[in-house]
Amino acid sequence: MKIAVLPGDGIGIEIITEAVKVLNVLDLPLELEWADVGGKAYDNHGHPLPEATLNLAKAADAVLFGAVGDWKYDKLERQFRPEQAILGLRKGLGLFANFRPALCYPELTHASSLKPELVAGLDILIIRELTGDIYFGQPRGRRTAVDGHFPGSEEAFDTMRYSRPEIERIAHVAFQAAMKRGKKLTSVDKANVLETSQLWKDVMTEIHAQYPEVALDHMYVDNAAMQLVKAPKKLDVVVTGNMFGDILSDEAAMLTGSIGMLPSASLDKNNKGLYEPSHGSAPDIAGKGIANPLATILSAAMMLKFSLQQPDAAARIEAAVQSVLAQGLRTADIWSEGTTKVSTREMGDAVATAI
Amino acid sequence: MKIAVLPGDGIGIEIITEAVKVLNVLDLPLELEWADVGGKAYDNHGHPLPEATLNLAKAADAVLFGAVGDWKYDKLERQFRPEQAILGLRKGLGLFANFRPALCYPELTHASSLKPELVAGLDILIIRELTGDIYFGQPRGRRTAVDGHFPGSEEAFDTMRYSRPEIERIAHVAFQAAMKRGKKLTSVDKANVLETSQLWKDVMTEIHAQYPEVALDHMYVDNAAMQLVKAPKKLDVVVTGNMFGDILSDEAAMLTGSIGMLPSASLDKNNKGLYEPSHGSAPDIAGKGIANPLATILSAAMMLKFSLQQPDAAARIEAAVQSVLAQGLRTADIWSEGTTKVSTREMGDAVATAI
Ligand SMILES: CC(C)[C@H](C(=O)O)[C@@H](O)C(=O)O
Ligand SMILES: CC(C)[C@H](C(=O)O)[C@@H](O)C(=O)O
Fold it and tell me: Where does substrate bind (chains A, B) (predicted)?
């Protein structure tokens, strides 16, 4: 099984190193190939997603991704900025289904901004469509306005769009995920305003007929942003488009108070996928050895489960993470009085040992 | 001073009645003219925003608005649904600047989902552009896709767009609001992905040169959704587009735990405005006399301040609301052990008496 390992920028290399350490103790026939991505790739090869990196990712069975981005690239033209690498990988690999669990670990409930009773046991799965919507819609650009409030002035524009088959395939992914969990699916849109959302809602309703056991409800995105704060535990599986999913999955992750713990998977139609922590590259703490590697380690577990058909190995990693938490080991981001503060490497070692 | 009073649907009539009661005790030369809007207007006149209502609103110095919407209109074609009234009023009156304060009252801090220390003293002002963006951008509709992932299939599309002068005018509103408060402005966009956001960010940065005393920072919308949960008190004035503002202003309102207390103003370029509570029509509790009228009463105060140049009268209302809270009077939505539960009418009476 071939894995493309793309550490990227900031804390990327530190957290990926620990995830790889954990994979190595599992003694599976894994072939790891490393490549530059993001700002690092721009520095070394003049592009955030060099062709060699994209080809490596295409040839692999799965991609293990760290994080990209650093303030020092802020002034670059958009096409050269680190985050273009992640957009390019999603598009290039056809990774249309993004799984973003928002899970509150019992030991870490206190880390949430929310009152403990509102988040204890929280377990939401946000499924975000990842290759369509206003992220990739053409046309887009700048032009002179011919109508609107100020005809004749400069304007910028983007196109939100979804085709029926794009919505259908993410709907199937979401209903199937709901079948494996609480059989409850919330589809989030803005159908009271947007044409794209109305089609989204119509197609979700149609596909629902094939999954009669699942309870489907529709929620407007503004209301979803409120319900996440008010009563997050009422949500189970949430499916939404690329733009709304970007916002809601981050809001949901932050509710748990421990975004350093949250993995993510981005899958294509054959369950080949890219796996990365939900948090970013954190350039402010890069190189200090204090980043939390658990989100990346848990992403590696998702990879074993979803793309490499190794559910047992995945379960071993997950159990090992549970056990280091139970031992009271904490990186700085999740540390609290009475627990033991450990470095990135010590945390990785502890998980490897627990396996 | 002419005020168009549009109670709308659900609890609209109950809450507007109390706001009008409060306005009446102020003994100002106000001329109130009532009209149907929303589902009520559709039932009575076949359209959610009848021309007579729009004309009344145009002729008035300000509009006091209750709320619109009810499940029973869900099956109507979009153009006849109640929420089209509010979109039509915004467009028809040129109400491009939406002020959405998210304020946490000391007496109600416990009502928040967040830990008290994170929200005590919270005072954010979200300024949302209200007549542009993907809400009104043309073209939009359904068609057969000619490119994208599934050429030949049905697709729906919308256009996000902002022109330079549209961004400039909301930037001035936001910088001026920041000058009157903490001189700190956060502009929210998604410039790492969207052309529209890049222009938004560029123009905000340009206009900033005219307000050198204000500290401006830019934040991506996904990060803003996280920061609102993580550390809301770090935000002061936030300015953003119509779509992102819809989501973030509701998220921020819900953080306070007492959305029944939060007013809003939507202003045109001459400070003529529409004033409405931040909450909705709540059809589930309509007619029960238990809705919280304070958001609407405080909206009337905003109206006196922003559109009718009556800051003293506005301050009297605000002081009266403070005083009823201090007296321990609470409608059901904000009630807690040890306080006195009152009805919609009793709350309105108490505010009127306190004045
Ligand atoms: C970096 C950025 C382009 C990206 C997105 O908006 O999708 C990120 O926020 C994410 O959610 O993975
Ligand atoms: C009813 C709806 C069209 C409206 C909006 O999206 O603007 C509402 O959510 C609001 O925020 O006032």
Answer: 90, 100, 128, 222
